[in-house]
Amino acid sequence: QIRKMLSSGVCTSTVQLPGKVAVVTGANTGIGKETAKELAKRGARVYLACRDVQKGESVAREIQNMTGNQQVLVRKLDLADTKSIRAFAKGFLAEEKHLHILINNAGVMMCPYSKTADGFETHIGVNHLGHFLLTHLLLEKLKESAPSRVVNVSSLAHHMGRIHFHNLQGEKFYHAGLAYCNSKLANVLFTQELARRLKGSGVTTYSVHPGTVDSELVRHSSLLRWIWWLFSFFIKTPQQGAQTSLYCALTEGLEVLSGNHFSDCHVAWVSAQARNETVARRLWDVSCDLLGIPMD
Ligand SMILES: NC(=O)C1=CN([C@@H]2O[C@H](COP(=O)(O)OP(=O)(O)OC[C@H]3O[C@@H](n4cnc5c(N)ncnc54)[C@H](OP(=O)(O)O)[C@@H]3O)[C@@H](O)[C@H]2O)C=CC1
Ligand SMILES: CC1=C(/C=C/C(C)=C/C=C/C(C)=C/C=O)C(C)(C)CCC1
């Protein structure tokens, strides 16, 4: 009851999804798994984009059994490796005619300093650049499938983030907590810039704070694991944490709010830097440059 009281925000949309195609990154556990389960329940063909295919397969079976929807498919996606992202996109584009819902959900938090296969700091590399490249590669398909949506799972933690263009890879200064916050700010800025660029295309996009959710996200921090355990009554379940992503993916009439940030199924306030169009545009250009994507 206490948990229910403190975790407001329920997606009440009754939209059903037969014939629709969805991709959820990091769908083998936590918020992503619950998001994928609900999309499957509503009849969508759901791709679980996971770095660990074995974990993904066992979750796919669980979702198939629970929902009766056999169209739950697992594909390998390691967001810490642009080759893997390109291979995922190539495979997906070859096998699917449409993409209606892309949920950029996967994330890492507070890992010790490390680099992705392409030499990006892991938080910015996985949480921002990986999803930036994935979205770029799937964008034509999303446009062809319009109306379609991109949901970027960010965090309230973006409020403490800053985009330091001179230290984007954390080489001059690194703090695991701040690196996470910076990458979540990048998610909000990306959403806003994407919304501006997609105006009139029928593709809309939203960033989300899912709430404080009991998941494996705290795996790298014993302090947070302890806080999570201590306050477990106040923390959302992954199913509750999935509600705002589902709200943004499903709610009819939300198109006019493209680019906005949502929490507890409502529009939420973002930090001053998150509203800075110049920073958003520069981050877009720098991201293209780092990923070898032509700037337009
Ligand atoms: N939990 C919370 O309180 C909050 C969560 N969020 C955000 O919600 C999102 C989901 O997190 P949550 O469910 O809590 O955390 P979990 O750690 O439970 O799930 C994260 C998912 O991301 C996947 N992932 C991590 N790295 C990669 C990678 N390189 N390539 C592909 N997938 C990867 C994980 O895969 P694997 O299992 O193989 O590691 C896992 O499936 C994240 O973006 C997080 O920042 C935001 C605010 C609060
Ligand atoms: C102190 C305190 C809490 C701690 C909250 C924290 C530490 C939240 C961190 C959120 C993160 C890391 C979000 C990820 O994006 C709880 C559990 C709400 C219970 C009330 C007291």
Automatic annotation (TrEMBL):
Pathway connected to this protein? Cofactor metabolism; retinol metabolism
The catalysed reaction is: all-trans-retinol + NADP(+) = all-trans-retinal + NADPH + H(+)
Tell me yes or no: is Oxidoreductase among this UniProt entry's keywords: yes
The enzyme's first-digit EC class, named in words, is oxidoreductase
Keywords for the protein's UniProt record, in alphabetical order: Lipid metabolism, NADP, Oxidoreductase
* One Pfam family this sequence matches: adh_short
What PANTHER family does this protein's entry cite? PHOSPHATIDYLINOSITOL-GLYCAN BIOSYNTHESIS CLASS F PROTEIN-RELATED, RETINOL DEHYDROGENASE 11
> Member of which family?
Belongs to the short-chain dehydrogenases/reductases (SDR) family.
Under which name does UniProt file this protein? Answer: NADP-retinol dehydrogenase
